[in-house]
Every structure is written in structure tokens, then in C-alpha cells.
Protein 1
Amino acid sequence: MVEVNSMTPKVEGHTKMKKHVWKKKIVPYIFIAPSVILFSIFMLYPIGYSFVMSFQTSAGGEMTFNGLENYKRLFNDDIFLKALKNTFIILAVQVPMMLFLALILAVLLHSSLLKWKAMFRVSFFLPAVTSLVAYSIIFSIMLMNDGLMNQLLEWIGISSIPWLSHPFWAKVSLILAMTWRWVGYNMVIYLAALQNISEDLYEAASIDGASKVRQFFSITIPQLKPVILFTAILSTIGTLQLFDEPYTLTKGGPSDETLTIGMYLYQTGFRYFDFGYASTIAYVIVVLIAILSFIQFKVSGDER
Amino acid sequence: MFKRYWKWLVLIVASAVMLAACSGKQSSTDDKGEGSSEKIVLTAWAWNVNVGALNEAMKEFQKSNPNIELKVEDIGRLDVYDKLSTGLAAGGTGLPDIVLVEDDRIHGYVNAFPKGFVNLSEKGFDQYKDVFPTFKKDLTSVDGKFYAMPFDAGPTGMFYRTDLFEKAGVKAEDIETWDDFLAAAKKIKEATGAFAMPLDKFKDDPIFRMMLNQRGIYYFDQDGKIDLTNPKAVEAMEMLKKFDDAGLIKDVDGWNGVVSATVDGSVATVPFGAWYYGTIVDQAKDTNGKWGVFLLPAFEKGGNRAANLGGSSWMIPASSKHIDEAYKFLEFFSTTKDIQLMAMEKYGLFPSLASAYDSELFTSGVQFFGGQKIWELFANEMKDIPTAYYTNDYAVALDEAIKAQADVFNGKDPKKALEEAAKRLKDRTKREMNTY
């Protein structure tokens, strides 16, 4: 705050400097304005408005407030509870299985003994970038009654399985498809994290006589803990919003056995036009994600 | 200092949001030109063959209305509904002047968005109420007021492979009831290995719906009460079960599955609406001359064999800036015999305009179908088609009926499955349930 030019009258210099400071303060905001404004229009506004809508119901084309009715209805809605149950079954089975598989694949592909590493990495990652349409068509063809899977089973002498039409097998099919699609993605994240584990640890362990398996459980997993937590939370969020696979493979059937919360949300909003109730479901998903993420932080004991 | 700018920022953001929220109704059509001398561009959303029919009709229309133009956006069927629903929920933003809607959805849309569409009766469409069959009139009007202009219909039939029937020594003329058909289908399976019908067993229920419609019932009755437990419905479901138990239903995946079963000859018949003609002719070119059509079998000798599946109509969103022009064009489209014949001849869209049936097209044989007069058969069927009561809860009812069908194919007793579905439907829609 020192005057630079002593020839300039005092008052003028003061305003000039004020202007300068003002500019300095406002410019950053102008720079971030486009993204903030876009974010507000396309994210904040819908988020806020759908929260309002979750307390509304449609009567004769007009939205009217009905207090907590939607939330009350939700917890007595058998179909929602079924969807919730299905989603949690898939979550409980698929996420741990997929993450464990991804971890093992990552460790194998990290091994210095393996050749053609790049090719393996790409081929495991490819499913994550495959077009959803192609992927779902191929899976539905493979899982058809006379599809490839059943032909293979019959060839080795096992009777064919109703992959997409039996309550139990339909869930298995979804889990298989999701695992195929996302295991490579998680594997790549683990591979990146594996680069950061110091070789010294393994060296010291092998001098102490620890087996490879022991090293995996006592060094690799503890060292990867923050990354495992990260992927677990991502996968949990993804599974709670699960929509693509049941929509393309089973349409939620047979008889709602593969209906997920995400699918029920879509049906309620876009098939039954009940936008208020659909918003309520959306907010319940948000709350569930928050609770589950919190639990995962606590269980893993990571306070950071 | 920071605090003050922060306030400004919030203000800017808030006003931007307000602006976005309040920018209000906007039609996607050009704004200019209320005067008759200026060009008016109507926009329309439609899918598939309907687009071509609409464009050609406009060419005719322009001969007497040179100032009107049409821009048809060819959007997938389900995408039209997604866009229409969101547009209506947003108070009519971004909607076209004309939109194609399938008949089973019309009541749902009008009930969910009563102010979303133009009341066509107020525009004078009532004068045409006698030129369409009753069931189509019921589908396009709500509380006696037209909200949609009837276009194509889907009188049902059993499209069958004459060569497979012959090989098994089965005559289509002898099939009068579903039991006859069951016996015939067993013979055909034995002789040729072909299934009786394709069906996406766990995801769709078109055959069940045809059976209900044929028997004069549907998911709901005339008063909007849930009617799934009607003994006739139970009987229909039991009939499907009989076919499945005998291994006569080919489980296929969606529309593509049905089409490929049609093409590869793994099914001997395909029960569908008249519009399936176009697909057969288009996709199964190698089977030229090997097809025939007979009416749906009845449930008892001499019973009704007429039903409808599918069909669509035109609606005008109330947010349109050119309602009068859109009305005028659609009136021309829907009630002009030559236009309907053009749509039929070129695009296989079966008209619901009764006066069209007198023309030569409907009385001549179709070469692809071995010279059979299939259009005459469908046209004669139209007057006997009972009205199906879809209501605004049709989408939920359809889902519940499909679940019931899935349960039946997974081993549940048909009566029990339908009762459970009816109860779920009652919970979801708060409608009354018929007891028998």
C-alpha cells in the first residue's frame, strides 16, 4: 500500500490502487464463473428441485405438496423393499468378489515373471470401455436358453441353466456381467497403487522366509488399504445406482427378482410419470450411499 | 472483502438459476409467421415407417396449403416417450406440434397431463366419430373428448408358415379354438420340430393381452376396476401354460428374438397385429409365398376371434404455436382415404379409417401370402374388436401382468399368480378389485 508515483495527486492514486486491488479480487471469480454457473444450472438446481419434488405429488398434472406422504409410502412399498433387498444382495456378493478378483489379477499382472503384460492389461480393461449396447446384446445372446453358455454346459454334461428367467440365476447373471465389466477397471487402479509399494518390504519379507501368499496378505493388502477403500466406495455407489445391467438383460424380471432401486426409480419416473415419488426414491439412495460410505470408513479404521 | 464478493457470486448464480428456471415455454417451431402468407414450419416426432407416411401426406397437403411445411424428426419409439414425458413435465418446453403416440399410452398421458394436449373435440373433430371403429374411438378419447386422431390399428391374426402346416398335415381352416390349435401345434412340433409361437416369456405378454381383448376383458374393466382375476383371464393364462408345458413356446429375447424366430423358421405361427406383415415381408424374403394368416382361435366354438394389438394415433401438444395448422394437417391425414391407402400400400400401416376398406387394395390377394386376401380378413375383423380399457395405470398393470406370467412359467398356479398380481396392482394404484 505504498504510493508509487509521488507526482500523482493523492486522491487519484488511492482510487487507482483500490481499483487494482478490486480487480485482483474479482478476476479469479470471473475465471471460475462459467463452471460455477453451469454447475449451478445443471447440477445444483436439479438437485435442489428434486429435493422439493420429493415432498410433492402430481394431482391432475400439477405438483402439490403432500408432506412426508411419499416417504411413508416408500417404507410400506413392497416393490421398493424388494428392490432394496435385491440391490443389497448384489452388493454383498458382487462388490467383495469383484474387488478380490481385481486385486489378484493386479498382483499377477504386476509380477516380473509375466510376459505380454501390456496385452493382458489392455484386454482386462477393455470391457470397461466397451459400448453398453454391444455388451448387453452379447451377454443376452450368450445367456439365452440355447445360447453359448448353455451349449458349453451341455457339452461338458451339465443340464442347461435358465440364466435370465430363474429368480436365482438371473441374479447370478447380473453379477457375472457386472464383474466382467468392472473387474478390469478396478484392476488398473490397483496396478497403479502397486507401483508405489516399496520393493524393500517384499525383499525383507522373503529374507524372513515369508511365502508369496503370506506376502500378499501381510504386505500387499495392508499397503493398498486406502486404495481398496476407495474402490469399495466407488463400487458401492455404482451398485446402489445399478441400472444398466438389469435394464438391458432382464428388465428387472422374472417377477421383480432383479429389480434394483435404480430401475424402480426409472420406472416410477418415466413409465408411471410419478416424478415426486421418483425423487423420493432418489433421495433415499443418496442417504443410503452416505451411510454405507461412512460405515466403510469406520470399519476400515481410516480416519484420514 | 472476500465475504462481499462471495455475496455477489451467490447473487449471480441465483439469478442465473432463476433465469434458467423461468425462461418458460418455448415451442421448437419457428416463431415467426402467424400471417397466412408466411411459411409455417410444423415439427413432428415419429418413428420408423410412420415418418415416411407423414412426409408423403404433407406433399399432398401442400398442394392446397403451400405455406405450410413439415419437419419430421425420426426418433426411436421409446425415446419419443422419454422426450415427451420430460417435455410435458417441464410445462410443454421443447415439444413439437405433432407427436405420434401408441394407443395404449394415450389415456395415461392425458390423465397425467390433462392440460398437455389439445382437446380435438373443441376443434371440431367430433364430426368424424362415426368413420372410425368403436374401439379406436374409445382409445383416442377421454371422457368423450378426442385427444388424439386415430391412425393405424393392429387387428390381430396368426401369421403362419403354410409349408410347415402342410408338412404336418394340419389345415389352418380347421383350427377354430385354442384347443384345436394346441393339438395342431403338437403335430407340427412332432413333424417339423418347429415351435408353435415365439414369446419373450419373462419380459412381455402380447399373447395374453390378445386373449384378454378377444374375450372382451382387459387388465381393467369399463369402470376402471382391476379385472385380472376374471375367470376368463385365468383361463387365458392357463391356456398359455398348456402350450408351455407341451414345449410349444419358444422363449425369445425381445423384439429381435421374435423377428429372428420368424426368419429362421423355428416357429410355425406368430400371433401379432396386422402391422407385422411389414416385418415379415421385409426380413423373411426367402420365405416368399410360404405364409398365410388365420384369425386368433376362439376359446369356445363360435366365440369371438377378433382382437387388436398395437396401433397409434396423432396428438397435438397444447404448447404448440401452430395448433390450427397442425390440426388442419392431421385432419387431412387421418380422414383422407387416399392418404390412408398410401400409408397402407407403401408402409404397411393398417388404417382405422373405415371408408378405406372398400378400395381395391383390400379385396385383392397378396402374393407374399400365397395370394390370400389377408387385408380383407383384417378389415372384416375390425368391427368385432372389443374395446380394451387401458386407463392411466396401464403401465403399472402391464408390469404386474408380465410378473404374473413370469410366475406362471416358473411354476406358479395361474389363478394364484393372477390373484397376487391383482393385489399388488390394487396396492399400487388404489383401484378397486373385482371379486369372482
Protein 2
Amino acid sequence: MRELFQRAGVLGAIVALLGVVVAGLVFGSGQPPDRAYELEQRLRCPVCKSVSIAESMSDTAVAMRATVSEQVDAGRSDQEIVAYFTARYGDWILLDPPAGGDTLLLWLIPLGVAAVAGVVVLTRRRPADEQGQLDDADRQRVTEAVAGMRATAEEEDRL
Amino acid sequence: MTVILAAAGWSGAALGAVSSLVLAVLGLRAQRRPESVDRGHLKAAVQCVVGGAVLSMAALEVALLTDDFGITYVAENHSRATNVLYSITGAWSALEGSIVLWALILAGYTAVVLRQVRTTDDRLGTGALAVMGVVGVFFFGLVATVANPFGLEAVPPTDGAGGNPLLQDHVMVAFHPPMLYLGYVGFTVPFAFAMSALLLRQGGVDWLRRTRRANLVAWTSLTAGLVLGAWWSYEVLGWGGYWAWDPVENAALIPWLVATAFIHSAVVQIKRGMLQAWNFVLVLATFSLTILGTFLTRSSVVVSVHSFSQSPIGPALLGFFVLVLVVGFTLFALRGERIASMSRPESLVSREGAFLVNNLLLSLFAFVVLLGTVYPILVEAIVGSQVSVGRPFFDRMAVPLSFALLLAMGAGPFMPYRRATGALLWNRLRIPLLAGSTAAAAVVVAGVRSVGVVAVVLLAVTIAAAAVRQFVVTLPSATPRAALHLLRGQRAYWGGQLAHLGVAVVALAIAVSGGLATRASENLDLGGSLEFDGYSVTFDKTEEHREADRLITDAHLVFRTGDRVDYVATPRLTAFDNQPQAIGAPSVWNRPSGDIYVALSNLEPDSVAVNVYEYPLMSWLWAGGVLMAAGGLWALGGRRRRPAETTSTVSGPVGADGHA
């Protein structure tokens, strides 16, 4: 009985603590995002090797960062700023490939592969009746032996 | 001298190639008819392979150390001013030399495999030696032909061009590349045994058991290599990060992911006889992905498709990759079905079910990273337009997959084989869950509002607590001796748990250092200052240091609280005499609570543009990496169990033991 209360207590504590977590995350106020920095991370530095302009020390990146800051201060939206850069450099400038055009497949293929893999795992489970050629007496003995083993194993599992 | 060195080096490679060919032929013949080949002949062939590799490497090192600019590789990648350390590492700092290192390590692994093959009656072993020989023919052949570092200069220059400055700026160049190659090349061994098993039509777990050590050595080295690389990049490159999803980095991560899947699914086959076909696929994939990775990083195909033809090594590697894939999968398709059982787990909620889920997630992860890496190349080759696939894409794919992997890792090791019940799982996980949710609530109360960070804290603490709980519960008595006995008795399981603990720590460090980082970016005139994280940071002065081949300029930024000086950051800019572009290096202040990272984005005599970051818990990332590698080493240690012994140890007290 005491053990039961203890277990219920643990469950209650976990639920309460997770409640605190969720409430904190939902109602707590985080810091406002740094829009300019977020945009900078999505734009590729044209003169470097695969880093964003936020991370690059090159003069070009410095100039592009200044442009981003100016446009953010001028109140332009993220889409407008991104469009400004793609108009000048093409889609190549986007480190975050859009889900459309040449990079549509990039998004669809992983989703497709994940879906197929999930379906295969969930449906191709071993059938329960895969028991081979046993006569009834043998099957009875196996079932009893398995039940016995399982009981012992479950005893041990309750550690 | 020049001619002698070049001749010796090239002959070494040629000797390696020829004796690899002999090894391949003898090995295959021995596998067909064991009595027709003497083990002594196999041994002689392997000795020649090793001798050739050592000769080649030694010639290259001597040429570098004696400034022998008559040899092209030395003239192009070395200069008189290069110090001894970077002269030695120069042997693998450029393409041709790195293939010599590859061949040397391959020769070493081949010698290790030979030691296992005690007689030619061991048909699995002789076949594996043959496959190692075939791979050796390719790599020694590269060194002797298209990747020959021993070409001669018609007119030897008085001084060489010097190497890549980034590879002469940090001692890590002596450790990271050899470590990575030890991992990469190590996967040749399981590949060789798998191919040999297919050739022999011999399924079962023999090939897995015999490659377990090589797998673990390779996995541990690759893990250590990746972490060292991340640390190097963090300490040196100055853009403020450790992982950029750069193709070169991805090329090392992809085989690591597949290899991690493989060392897990090998357990399932050894313990439960399942996933046999899948293990062949994973081994084939791991090996071919190391080749593909080398191709991607070494052929400059990543930078642009149009520079493809500049290096003949690229097409050679690509050809070998295709050959491995075609031969490997053809053999698998012809023989795999017959020798590999197709049995599947009866329930996904079981240890083997969790392994299966882990395998799918890791494979999917590897696939997504591979797709993102090659997609721009494919689009440019097929459509002709240029696109970029960068961090935002990889992060968006990696984050959910990593969370799913953490979930599997939290539950999997604590489930029994065959089938787990909800009651059992709850029994084993409620205390860890309590610890995890307490930690999560604590960080929320402390003011953290990032969902990702809180979720990782919850999962990581739960995983760590579950591992500790399992250990405490399994411990027969609370004495250090009993603890050591338990850890030694089930090395594989507890090594795995140690590695999992490392993964949890790494996940925590990645989430916290990324999610809770603060940053400031400012232009400072001499004497000017900025406020950061409670410090006042003043730009004090710049200093110049002249070294043999470079001019180092560092800026002194003084961190003060009140009047007390806490730290002087000296981020620097290094101008190499032989390079037009100076390279920056950050200054990293390791504090227990987190790093202060100072990088220059511009440096004038009287003004700097400086980026200052604070990365909380950053040092945990390296600690977690060390734990992961330590887990691999722990599982590796100890005597190998004999097959009879393994069948008698059915399972530990809680059915929680790993594989033999």
C-alpha cells in the first residue's frame, strides 16, 4: 500500500513539474528575437566557403550586414529583405533553400523516405502465428515453458 | 638525394600496389581451396604491403624535413621557414600526401587482420585479406599514379610555396587528420569480412564477432576525430562556431552516423539473430560513404562542378565508389537472401525494437545530410542553376531527428529483449523522469524560455539518471570492487551507457551554448570600451610579433569588473608571407560557466571591429566527446570472450547486458 502511494507520488510530482515547465514556456515572456541577426544567418556570404554573412569577417559580409540592419530599421518585412537579396544574387544567396522551384525535391525526398520507412517498420512486424510445424502436444509444452520463463523474467525485471 | 628519395617513395607505393594485388589473388585462392596456399605467402604479401607503405611515408617525411624542393609535393606544400612540427604534418596537409597516409593506415589494418588469420583453413579470414588487398591495390595505385607526390621538378625552386596557412596555425593538425583517417580506413575491415562472408555464402555472426574490435577502434577514432575537428574549428576559425554543416564536415559525419547505426544493429544480430541482411547493407554503406566522402572533399567537386576535371583523383575515387557499390550490392543481392535470416522483432516496444528505430533514425539522418550535401552539385549538374543548402536546412532536419534519437536512447537500453510492458518501463524510468522533469522545471524557473533548451535538459538529465539508476540497481553490493566487477563484466553494455552519457552531455552543450548564447558586435577605437555580460571590455593596444614565415598582429581587449582586470583577450590576425589573405584567430576564455569568445572582424592600428560571444556550457561539448570516445574504448577493452562463453552468459541480472 505504501509503495502504491509512493508511486502515485512520483507520478504526481512528474506531472506537476512538467506543468511548471509548460506553463513557464507558454506564459513566460522571452527576449524579443534579434531580427537582423536571424536574417543574417539565412544569407550566404558570397565570397566565403559555405558560411552565412553573420559568421563571416569578409568586407562583403560586413557591407551586407549593414544593409540588413538598415532595412530592418526601416521597417521592411523579412520577406522583403530576403527578396531584395535574391533579386541581386539569385536563390544561391539563400542558405535556407525554399520549398519550391529547384529545391522543392530537397524537402520532399526526406519526407517521402521517412514516410516509407515508418510504414515498413509498422506494417512488416513479425506475424504472431509464425510458430512453425509443431504438433499440439509440443506446442503445449513450449507454451508452458515460455510462460514459466516469462514469470521468472518478470520477477527479475521488477528491480 | 632528390632522385633517390623520389624513387624510394614511388617504389614503396608500387611495391604496396603489387603486393596488395598478390594478396588479393592469394587470399581469394585460399578461400576457394585452403590447402593450395601457404599462410607464409599471405604473410609475406602483407609484410610487403606494410613495408611499401612505410617506405613511401618515410621518403615523404624525409623530403619534407630536408627541404628537398626537387620533389613537386615539397615544392608546392612546404617552405624553408616551415617549422619541424608543420613539416611533419605537411605529409598529410595536401591531397597526395593524405592518400599516402591512407595507404599506410590501410596497411596497418591489413597486418592486424593477418594476425587473426592463424591458418589458411580460416576461409572467412583469408577472404577478408583478399578484399583488403583489393582496396589496397586501389589506394597504393592512386599513390603510384594520379596522386603521386613524388614527381620531380625540372628546375627545383630555391624555396617552396608553403602549405595552406590554416593547416599551419594549430597543433591540432597533428592529431585531427590521422584520427579521422584511423576511423575512415578502419571501416575497411568490417567491409572486408562482410564481403568475404558473402563470397563464402556463410551467414551467421562470425564476421560480426571478428570485426567487433576493428569496428570499435574505427568508431572511437572517428568520434574523437570529429570532436577534435569541431574543437579545432572553434579555436581557430573565428566565425564563432564549431560546426558549419560544411560539406567537408558532413563528409565525416555521414559515415559516422551509419557506423553508429551499424554498431547498434550488430548487437541485435549477435543477441537475437535479427537484422542480418540489414547489417550487410550498413557495412557496405559505411565503407562506400567513406569513399564518397573522400571524393566530395578531395576532388573540389563541392566548390563547383566545373573544377571537376582539374584533379584526376576525383574521377578515380568516384569510379571506385561506384565499383564498390555495384560489386557490393550485386554480391549482396545474389547471396544475401540465402544466408541472412529475415526474422523481425515481434514488438517495437522491446530492446531490439528500439535498436531498429535507432537504426532507421540514424540512417535517415545520414541520408538527409548526404542529400543536403550533394543536392547543390546535382542541381548544378542537371539543371544548371546554382542553389545553396546551408545551416537552416540541416538544423531543421537534424533537430527533430536528434530529439527522436534521444527518446530512443532514453528508453531503449532499459527495455528487455522480445517485449517490454508499460508497467516495466514505468518502473525503470519513473525516477529518471522525476530527475529530468525537476531539472527542466528548475531551468524554466531560472528564466530559460527556449523550448529546445528545456526539452534537451529534460531528455538529457533523464537519460543520464536512467543510466545511473540502472547501474545502482544492478550493483550487487555498494563497494567499489563490486562496481568495477560489474563494469568489467559487461563492458559492451556499460561502455555503451558511457557513450550515451556522452551523447546526452553533448546534446545539452549544443542546445545550451546555441540557445542561450549572447553576442555583441562593435567597432572600437583605441581606448574605447563596451559592456558585455557584466564586464567592461576595453581595446587597449595592438602588438605585432614577427615569426619566420608570418606576421602576427594581436589586439588586446581587457575584460574588467570594477577596477580588477579579469582577462586580457588577444584575438589575432596572421599574415603569411606567401599568402595574400590574412587569417584571423579568436581568443577563447574558458570559464566553468561558459566561454567568452572574442573574434576580430577587422583590425586597424587604432581601431578594431570585434565580435564578442558568450557560450554557456561550451566546454561540456568537449567533455561529452571525451565520454563518447571513452565509452568506445571501455567496450573495446578486456579479453575477448570465446564463443562458448558468450552462449552461456544468456543475460545479466536484469536482462540488460550488451553484446559479447
